[in-house]
Specification:
With about 575 residues, the protein is of the alpha/beta class. The protein has 24 helices and 15 strands. About 45% of the residues lie in helices and about 15% in strands.
């Protein structure tokens, strides 16, 4: 809870409690359905004590957290049986006594008071407090007609409206399964305000079933070209690594920027079009054929501009990341991207899913130039993106070999090598190395010790996991420390301890390579860094989220330097 919201409740505690105590709790009706009889339940944001007292009457063993001292006092005055049961604490820093875990957690009208940068840490804290198969009951605002563009009401309270589908994905990425959802009217009858109640069960470690639609499209849809495979590979990669760039729609859909997908295609097809010998990507495609891949010609012209002397794919990637300054080259790249976009819209977006009973799965929104799909499909891409990406690469290679069967010169193994080709990592980190070389106060990011001479540029998220050389992912580290870390992810505790050092690295890189840093950081943050909002806290929150989700989904070992 931020200071302005805390001040509101502290100065008006008596009035707030009086108002809430005269109406029936909108979530009380779900308590028996949500929580195991006799179980231990934690109420986070206990407020007036109304819900905590109701849970106690129902026979649950209860405890609560409430950050506002005045509300805690009022709650105990109203409900003396709660004396000693309401502790001082708030999300995201909840710390139950003796590391206790609970059978159930109630979190009613609380998440709306958290800025977006704290939301993942709050969800992770809730997960940490629950037993396996424990239940989490959340109530959030679905609509708020009383807030301004800054997310605050006239009294200064922060009242964020997080889409329920977005929250479902957030918690499912941490091992929860949504098992209930209900709409509620506002108990005070306020116009323009409504509520959603969500019930989750922690099932980390349980098997997640792949979505049948994706499997059906990859297996059964007619494939005259590799476009559908390229689309799913791009969507899976964006879901894993750039999920904040998407827009959650009130209709239960998700909109993915078309340009983000086109950029992925630009790099996917580069090694195929640059290969020695012709590599078909469409049935019947051959050298000098009448109907080649629509964007092949322009793409190959761009490839020719980046021959071996210009660094090939790596040279292009460096120019592209830093912002192309040559106007002719910029126009050429834009032309290729527009050709790719047209192919995506008229090809896989139009036809993917037509072999299924459910029909096509994508739509194109011309106003926002976005690919639109059902939010449950996007959740599957987010949860299973790594496996979907690997499966798509294999099928893409097999399809390419099949398309070349009359010529017989291409094997699936060779195509896999092309599809997995990336810009050379060493060259992509050169800029960060050059900048850190002249840094006055150069310290190891993970130990804080001054680095006198030899050091490495370390990937916070290992390159082997994400293939990511963005500046926000590159930090200086003592060579021995970096060697000890290898392909492991930093522990959550280490990330928090070294937060300021990581942010200082970012500020330094941004001061000296602002265009590239801003472009790359925006893909993780989901918004431009420029503007009135501070970016450092939010970007670090997104990095923490990426580290924790990658560790959970990929089973990666965690690391911290010995003390």
């Amino acid at each position: 809870m931020d200071d302005r919201t805390h001040t509101y409740y502290a100065t008006r505690a008596s009035d707030v409690v009086a108002r809430y105590e005269v109406v029936v709790s909108p979530v009380e009706q779900y308590f028996h359905q949500a929580f195991t009889p006799g179980g231990r339940v934690l109420d986070i944001g206990a407020g007036s004590g109304r819900d905590l007292a109701a849970l106690k009457r129902m026979g649950f063993a209860v405890e609560g957290f409430e950050p506002v001292a005045e509300l805690r006092s009022e709650a105990v005055c109203r409900h003396p049986e709660l004396a000693g049961l309401i502790l001082d604490g708030s999300l995201p820093g909840i710390d139950p006594p003796q590391g206790r875990k609970y059978d159930g957690i109630l979190c009613s009208a609380v998440l709306m008071h958290l800025p977006e940068g704290e939301l993942f840490d709050a969800a992770f804290a809730l997960r940490r407090c629950l037993k396996q198969h424990g239940r989490l009951l959340i109530s959030v605002s679905a609509n708020r007609g009383d807030v301004g563009g800054d997310g605050r009401d006239a009294d200064g309270r922060l009242l964020k409206c997080y889409p329920p589908d977005y929250l479902q994905l957030l918690f499912e990425r941490l091992g929860f399964l949504q098992i209930g959802r209900w709409s509620n009217d506002d108990v005070f009858g306020r116009s323009g305000i409504s509520w959603i109640t969500l019930l989750f069960e922690l099932r980390a470690g349980d098997t997640i079933t792949p979505v049948d639609q994706i499997e059906g499209i990859l297996n059964r849809d007619k494939k005259d070209a590799t476009y559908k495979l390229a689309l799913f590979r791009a969507l899976a990669e964006i879901a894993m690594k750039e999920s904040n760039s998407v827009r959650w729609m009130p209709s239960g859909h998700v909109a993915v920027p078309l340009r983000s997908v086109a950029k992925k295609w630009l790099f996917y097809y580069w090694p195929l079009f640059a290969a020695d010998g012709f590599v078909p990507q469409k049935r019947g495609e051959a050298p000098a054929c009448r109907k080649p891949v629509k964007f092949r010609g322009r793409h190959q012209a761009l490839i020719r501009r980046f021959g071996p002397a210009q660094g090939g794919l790596t040279g292009f990637a460096l120019d592209f990341a830093s912002g192309i300054t040559d106007p002719d080259l910029r126009r050429e790249v834009e032309s290729v991207l527009k050709n790719i976009e047209a192919t995506i819209v008229t090809g896989p977006v139009e036809y993917a899913g037509n072999s299924l009973a459910t029909g096509r799965v994508f739509e194109f929104d011309r106003t926002s130039r976005s690919i639109v799909m059902q939010s449950d499909l996007w959740r599957e891409l987010s949860l299973l993106g790594h496996w979907i990406g690997d499966a798509v690469v294999l099928r893409w290679a097999e399809l390419t070999q099949e398309m070349d069967r009359n010529r017989g010169g291409i094997t699936s193994d060779r195509v896999i090598g092309m599809l997995l080709q990336r810009p050379e990592p060493k060259r992509e980190v050169e800029l960060a190395k050059q900048l850190y070389d002249v840094l006055d106060d150069r310290r190891c990011t993970w130990t804080g010790r001054v680095i006198a001479r030899r050091y490495d540029v370390d990937h916070v998220i290992p390159f082997s996991l994400w293939g990511n050389n963005h500046l926000w992912n590159l930090v200086p580290a003592d060579a021995k420390v970096n060697n000890a870390k290898r392909d492991r992810l930093p522990s959550g505790e280490l990330m928090q301890e070294r937060k300021l050092r990581v942010i200082r690295c970012w500020q330094y890189l941004r001061d000296h390579a602002s265009q590239r840093f801003d472009r790359e950081a925006a893909t993780l943050l989901g918004r431009p860094l420029s503007g009135p909002l501070a970016w450092e806290e939010d970007l670090f929150a997104r990095l923490r989220e990426a580290v924790e989700v990658t560790a959970l989904q990929r089973g990666v070992e965690r690391w911290a330097p010995p003390t």
